[in-house]
Amino acid sequence: MTAVEPQLPVDDAPGDAVSAGTTATTAKAGRSRVPWRFLGGRAAFYLFTLWAAITINFFLPRFMKGDAVDQYLARNRNVSPEAAEALRALLGIDTDKSMWQQYLDYWALLLRGDLGVSLLHGLRPVSEVISQALPWTVGLVGFATIISFLIGTIGGAIVGWRRGSRADVLIPITTFLSTIPYFWLGLLAIAVFSVNLKWFPIGKAYGVGMSPEFTPEFIGQVIHHGTLPAVTIIIASLGGWMLGMRNMMLTVLDEDYITVAQAKGMPNSRVLWRYAARNAVLPQIQSFALSIGFIVGGTIVMEMVFSYPGVGKLLLDATNAKDYALMQGVFLVITLSVLIANVLADVAYAFLDPRTRQTEA
């Protein structure tokens, strides 16, 4: 990918690109135009994607053998056939209605903000069940993803800038750690730091007997229980961020505008962060947006290994129980989070990348 050549500041490059000594195209004076055509096209694309995802979300669970009521009847054989049919009607899988009618009813409920009820959780509203699990996943996986992105991106930029130095040893080390199966890395961390050293608890989100409340004691328990899984996530994902940023830095450093900036006597720190890293980070933005979107889905393996409550384990339990409403609710939240993250990434691209702004012109 060809790096985006940033416009030099006014005091460094008054005039066109040739007088500034770069190969950049001449920038138009004045305020940058908002790329409405680009943003409108992306909005239409994401609306279509949302419709397709919701449609697949509706039909896919119904292709599975059995349903949540069958699972419930297998555990409770004293339920009458009338009660079973009432449960199916309540869950939106009434056999008296065609699949098309069920699909229309599903859309009608969604437009009213009703995700249905979860049979697995005693007919509690799906939105309530998800809202209780969502903060745990977003808090843990979100924090770990952001920290991993920042450390990997900054570290990759420095390693790329100092190419050929001893800092290059960080790349194979972090890449090797990223290739280790996550569940094995988590079990190893538990064996070393929880069982042997007893520095951290084995699992759960907080201590036994504690009730969730906004107090210093409870917050300390959450941090103590979440440190080990968070560090494990950071270690497992750090290599990808660092390697990607380092490779983009090597490409950007060969561009003419970097050579010109250095020839003009600019400080290395300014060339590194204002010109080289600023261009090299653009591909990282899209990957980071996808990672932010998938945070809502959580890391099922992490939540299973550390017995951590979250959306990932919730989805696994709903799948095993064939709880259609809960499955659809979790998938919908994950889909929306991924789409919103990509929209934000596209908006960031539109204002950071001049070539994107030129698509409207």
UniProtKB/TrEMBL annotation:
Record membrane topology: Multi-pass membrane protein
Entry-linked PROSITE patterns: ABC_TM1
Gene Ontology cellular component list: plasma membrane
Domain of life of the native organism: Bacteria
Matching Pfam families: BPD_transp_1
Transmembrane portions of the chain: 43-60, 136-161, 182-202, 222-243, 288-309, 329-352
GO terms under biological process: transmembrane transport
Stretches the record annotates as Disordered: 1-24
Keywords in alphabetical order: Membrane, Transmembrane, Transmembrane helix, Transport
Localization, UniProt: Cell membrane; Membrane
Domain annotation ABC transmembrane type-1: ranges: 134-345
Family indicated by similarity: Belongs to the binding-protein-dependent transport system permease family.
Name of the protein this chain belongs to: Peptide/nickel transport system permease protein
Organism: Microbacterium marinum
Phylogenetic lineage: Bacteria, Bacillati, Actinomycetota, Actinomycetes, Micrococcales
